[in-house]
Amino acid sequence: MFPLDFPLRILEKKANPGERVLDPFCGRGTTNFAARLLGLFSLGVDSNPVAVAITEAKLVNAKVENIVKEAETILHEVKVDALPEGEFWQWAYHPSVLTALCKWRKALLEDCRSAERKALRGIILGALHGPQPKYSASYFSNQCPRTYAPKPRYALNFWKKHKLHPKPVDVIEVVRKRAERFYAYQHESIGEVKLGDSRQIGTLRPQNSKIKFHWVITSPPYYGMHTYLADQWLRLWFLGGPPTVEYRAVNQLSHKSPSDFVKDLATVWNNVAALCESKAWMVIRFGSIPQRKIDGLQLIRDSLKDTPWQITGIHDAGSASNGLRQANSFLRQKSQAKMEHDIWARLE
Ligand SMILES: C[S@@+](CC[C@H](N)C(=O)[O-])C[C@H]1O[C@@H](n2cnc3c(N)ncnc32)[C@H](O)[C@@H]1O
């Protein structure tokens, strides 16, 4: 996930009122949220249902009080017959928290059409697992890394070794705090998000198929990082998936070889070009995983070669080490910081 500041500063400085923004790998909708803050229309596309649900939550118009009321009403009205079974679930959440999660899950799977419910779903996905608080809770789970869903066997060993039992959490307070953070200041939303594969041009078309985009600000997956679904298995469970880790990858760019990856990326850049105004700008934040010994920057250069996009500048974006230390305390295979670059290209 790139920081909000990245797309926000670009659009704030350079985009004109009324211009439109596209992110073909929108992840958690950072670009879309930045566009919303500036009153610009945006479309986000991602093949991961978790990413789409989180982006959707960032694009709805909902009031804090209504979101909290919806959360409370569901807890009062919905009954659940059974909780997910097994040691992992007993250690991951306090029984009262797991019951609340199961009630919300059931209700939101039955109906998630209103803005309040979409907002609530996004808030719960964001709070599902994370670090234990020093003062008041902002996550529902026992101690977890911030971004990756814990793998059951490893998590259990960790919790048992450190005698970390799940604590009761004021779940409504967590929802309220997060709702206040994201929805207290309303900017009218004019964005869209779609679940799909950006290699298919149809996926990238907005509802009004006549409009074209002036900005593309995006961050494709790094070469070799294709385990998104397993890393998000708990969030996928909340969206209706099974209560166990899934090692599936759906509609992700090919990571079979650097040339397959470059070919897939080129397809996306060509698709995007077909939907942009001439002289549109594209800014790609990209890095590489040190272990893969592949030059990420060269992959991006190669992927743009046979497309109408001309590279105009490459800037060092520093290293993406934030949050790694905390995640590393939990992981067997430690991650290293990644060097990142911003590639600017113009549609010729
Ligand atoms: C590095 S993340 C984007 C992060 C995003 N900039 C943010 O701030 O959250 C890359 C995203 O590309 C998505 N993705 C990978 N292959 C895709 C494809 N073929 N079509 C659409 N999305 C894809 C992944 O699911 C992932 O969410």
Itemize the secondary structure elements and their pairings:
Elements: H1 5-14, E1 20-23, H2 30-37, E2 41-46, H3 49-58, H4 64-77, H5 87-92, H6 95-110, H7 115-127, H8 152-161, H9 171-183, E3 192-195, E4 213-218, H10 228-231, H11 233-238, H12 258-274, E5 276-287, H13 296-305, E6 309-319, H14 324-328, E7 339-347
Helix pairs in contact: 1-2, 3-7, 4-7, 4-9, 6-7, 7-9, 12-13
The structure holds S-adenosylmethionine.
S-adenosylmethionine (SAM) binds at residues 1-2, 25, 27-28, 30, 45-48, 51, 197-199, 219-221, 228, 251-253.
For this entry, give a set of tags:
single chain, 348 residues, alpha/beta, Rossmann fold, 2 domains, 14 helices, globular, binds S-adenosylmethionine
Describe this structure in words.
The chain has 348 residues and is α/β, with parallel strands linked by helices. It has 2 domains: 5-59 and 191-347, Rossmann fold (3-Layer(aba) Sandwich); 79-183, no CATH class. The protein is built from 14 helices and 7 strands. The protein has helices spanning 5-14, 30-37, 49-58, 64-77, 87-92, 95-110, 115-127, 152-161, 171-183, 228-231, 233-238, 258-274, 296-305, 324-328; strands at 20-23, 41-46, 192-195, 213-218, 276-287, 309-319, 339-347. The chain has a 7-stranded mixed β-sheet, with helices on both faces. Helix 2 links the parallel strand 1 (20-23) and strand 2. Helix 6 packs antiparallel against helix 7 and helix 12 (258-274) crosses helix 13. The chain is globular, with a radius of gyration of 20 Å. The two termini are 29 Å apart. The protein binds S-adenosylmethionine. S-adenosylmethionine is lined by residues 1-2, 25, 27-28, 30, 45-48, 51, 197-199, 219-221, 228, 251-253.
